[in-house]
Every structure is written in C-alpha cells, then in structure tokens.
Fold:
Amino acid sequence: MNDALLAVGTRKGLFVGRRHGGSWEFDGPHFNAEEVYSVGIDTRGAAPRLLAGGTNSHWGPSVFHSDDLGKTWKEPLQPAVKFPKDTGASLERVWQLHPAGPAAPGVVYAGTEPGALFRSEDGGETFELVRALWDHPTREQWTPGGGGLAVHTIVTNPRDAGAVTVAVSTGGVYRSLDGGASWAPSNSGVQAVFLPDPNPEFGQCVHKVAQDAADPDRLYLQNHWGVYRSDDAGATWTSIGEGLPSDFGFPVAAHPTRGGVAYVFPLNADADRVPAGRECRVYRTEDAGTTWQKLGAGLPEGTHYGTVLRDALCTDDADPAGVYFGNRNGEVFASADDGDSWQMIASHLPDVLCVRAAVMA
Structure:
C-alpha cells in the first residue's frame, strides 16, 4: 500500500493526514478557527507544495503555501489574490486552488467569490485576475447559488496548456481554448430546472466537474439536479443519472488512471440535503455513466445524515486508487481499493469543506 497525504479543509482549520502502511496519523488544526474552503497539492516540483485558502473572520481571506508537508507555512506580505481597484470588488474567499498540470509548470489557478478566476505563474505565491472571464458580457447576469457567487471548479487539459474549463455558481460551465484570453459558455444539454427556460445558454447551477483519466475531453458533471457526461470537452452534455437513487448532489470525482470510472455521492433532494435514502454510500460508474454501483463496505450502516460537499470527495494518483470523502458530521472515510472497501480515518472534526490527496514517494 502506497504512503499517502490527505489534506482536509474544515470550517475551523486544516488537518493534514499521512498514511504509512495501513495506518493514518493527522495533525492540526493549521489555521485554527479559519474556514479552509480550498486546498491544492502540487506534486510537479522536487518536493510537493501544499496550498491552502483560508478565511479569517478578522483578517479576511489569504492563500498560504507549505513546502514541508505542512510543518511550516508561508503567507505573502501582500495579498496573493486581490481584485484590482477598478473592478470595485473585494475577495470574500478562495473556493479553488488548482495546479495546472505538467503542460504548464508553475501555473496555479484560483477560483474565488465573487466569481472570478486568477492565475499564478510562481506556484501560487502571487496571482493576477483573468480579465477576459471577469469582463465576459454574461458575468453581470450570474447570480449567487446557495453558497454564494463563486468560480468553484477549474479543470485543465494535461495535453493542452491553453484549454481551461471552469464552473460558476450560478453561471454554468465556461471554456477557454487560448489560455484564458477568451471564454464561451459550454452548457448545451445541462438543465436549469429552477429557471423559466430550463435550457439556457448559461445560468446553470453546476456543482462540480471532473475530468476522465484516459480521455481529457471526457468530463463528468454534477448539477443542481442532474448528472452529466461530455465527450467533447464540454461542448455538449448527456444525462447519465439513470440508475442513481437521486441525481441531486454536490461532488463528482474521477479515477486517476482508469478511463470511464467516476464517483458521486447522491443526496435526497435540494430541499432535503442528506444522503440519498439516508444511507452513507458512494456510487461508482465503470462505464462512463451507463451503469452505477452502490459502494458501502465499511461505511456506516443505518440512518446517516452526513452531507458531502462539492470539494469533499476526491481520489489520489494511485492504481488501485485511493478514494476519500469527508462530511458535515466531521467524519473522513478512505478507500485504498478503488472504493470497494472503506474505513473511517478521522471523526469529530469540524464541518469538512474540502479534501485533497496525493501518493507520496
């Protein structure tokens, strides 16, 4: 079993877990009492870099980084993510920290509330606003979802540094093919059941997007009602929710090496945001959404109310994959065998907002 690193962002700090053999040890909280909505693990350099987006109730939001697995943290003297004065906007929180991949070394993207995208070329130490998305003519028509108006998902293509996809709550999916110089809505087939026109060009309440391991143009999308797949990098979407107990939920994650394999955690409904059927169960597809399997070996039995948020389900980069999720009960679960069996590795934590994992050499 590979050693692994798991970063767990909560409403009251960051907890860092390490697996040696089959046992887990956690330390923290780092950034005590701060909301940690976003974590990134950048494994492209000689040593892994941890990135954390924390929000302090007094000092406001900031981005921190660590090059020693969380033993020490650095914060820039000037805010790493800051809106230019002419925008009239101020940063509320960083929802996403995304290392861009091998095609763009040093590049890290940040998604924020209010809804904007920032780009760093120095590993996440300083960021600049991606103006073309901020200035997009549809942006003023984006409206806040239940969690706020945020760019909460960023997907980059490992084969093409210029291809960037983001998801906005509630603006929908937007794509750039030129490194962020221009953007277009990419929501064909994704419904917005809460709007008079359920099939708008933009305005969908997308909850999360994940990229297939074998085909970067294949994407999986968890919507506010609806689970979808795209085989053309988001140009068009097809429903794959049949076979799930509910197609409402927040997270979706893809297997790191096996094509066609993805994971969701269904909830009962938008008006009843508890696990579908009140069962703590992950659902996996191994055929790109044609069929779904209920995974529960080792997960709690009986009535369960632990909601899993949009960034609180992830995989590492192993094969078999490590699969991880945390919930609003403060429980964290891990599987080392693609989701076939699970164990609880932490409990009684604060409300879990995000999890990120990586295999350690």
Notes: The mean pLDDT is 96. Residues 131-134 form the longest helix (4 residues). Residues 3-360 form a domain with the Methylamine Dehydrogenase; Chain H fold (CATH 2.130.10.10). The chain has one domain: 3-360.
